[in-house]
Amino acid sequence: MTLVEGNDEKGIISSKGRKVKRILKEYEVDKGERGVYNSKNRLNDLTGREWTFFINSVQITDFARDEKEFELWKFLQESIIETRYPTNGKDSVGHNLRKIHPSPKPPQLIKDLIAFFTKEGGWILDPFMGVGGTLLGASLLESRNAVGIELEKRYIDTYKEVCKREALKEQLTLCDDARNILNIDQIKNRPFDLILTDPPYADMLSRKRTGGDRKDKGAFTSDERDLGNVPFEQFFYEFRGIMEKAITLLKNKGYLVIFCKDMQPTNKYHNMLHSDIVNEICKIKNIYFKGYKIWYDKTINLYPYGYPFSYVSNQLHQFILIFRKEE
Ligand SMILES: C[S@@+](CC[C@H](N)C(=O)[O-])C[C@H]1O[C@@H](n2cnc3c(N)ncnc32)[C@H](O)[C@@H]1O
């Protein structure tokens, strides 16, 4: 960290290792390379920088001996998928258009999941498609067919624009409420090999958050049918209802993959949403939880939450929950 006198820029240590300039306050001590120590810290002797790195919810301590081999097998063998996908240029798969959505998923990550859970010619369903992370992931692979349902037409339009611009196959999109899934002619009789989705989690996005991803902001839509707008207590029941219908379209031995990010715990509730979701989905007949992968998104910045008084987790990871239909 470089300290330059006369510059009052606010200090944030980013996960990208960006250097920050600022003047010291009277209670701050320059610890050189370690960063700045806050003498009001009653918890430990860490500098702000050390604190911020400690509260990262993901800590990688193991490194492969052979980098090449690690790259090759990383996806299959690691329970933690560490990524830093580009957010501009050709390799971003139209991220600059997709970013009108509060939480677009990277198609490259989805592509790897689809490649694991389906064969060529496979059909994939996403009942909450947003701007099409799942559909784009399917199109990045050879001969996959995907169907997406989304309430908000402008997200579908954006998806279509990305397909055109990136010269990717446009998959089937349906502007509808996912609650109607079994009444939609184009899909009601289709057996799917994989359901891969990233649902809205109740009114999570509109809540004031302390240790969350600051990129997630605002509600997805103002539509009252949007699962993102239903009260938290009602959400689980509604979500299970939709998934119960969707799962009737899933082939026997087909997989269900759900993205989920935990919320900050409170003294009233642990808020491990991933665990609540697993409990809820397991109430559905013939669907079984098989485990999870953790996705560590390294494009998200670290912030010194709680510093210098108390531990607040910097959640840079999401759960990829994996279920299988077994009749
Ligand atoms: C977390 S986002 C999905 C983002 C997506 N994975 C992507 O890459 O863009 C969830 C989406 O579900 C949509 N949604 C919410 N309730 C819905 C419903 N009842 N039927 C269909 N779509 C719904 C929201 O508008 C939102 O775009």
Automatic annotation (TrEMBL):
It catalyses: a 2'-deoxycytidine in DNA + S-adenosyl-L-methionine = an N(4)-methyl-2'-deoxycytidine in DNA + S-adenosyl-L-homocysteine + H(+). It is an enzyme of class 2 (transferase). This is Type II methyltransferase. Keywords: Methyltransferase, Restriction system, S-adenosyl-L-methionine, Transferase. The keyword Signal does not apply. One of its GO terms (cellular component) is cytoplasm. The keyword Mitochondrion does not apply. GO terms for molecular function: DNA binding; N-methyltransferase activity; site-specific DNA-methyltransferase (cytosine-N4-specific) activity. Belongs to the N(4)/N(6)-methyltransferase family. Its EC number is 2.1.1.113. Residues 65-161, 193-326 form the DNA methylase N-4/N-6 domain. It comes from the Archaea. PROSITE patterns: N6_MTASE. InterPro entries: DNA_methylase_N4/N6 (IPR002941), DNA_methylase_N6_adenine_CS (IPR002052), RM_Methyltransferase (IPR001091), SAM-dependent_MTases_sf (IPR029063). GO terms for biological process: DNA restriction-modification system; methylation.
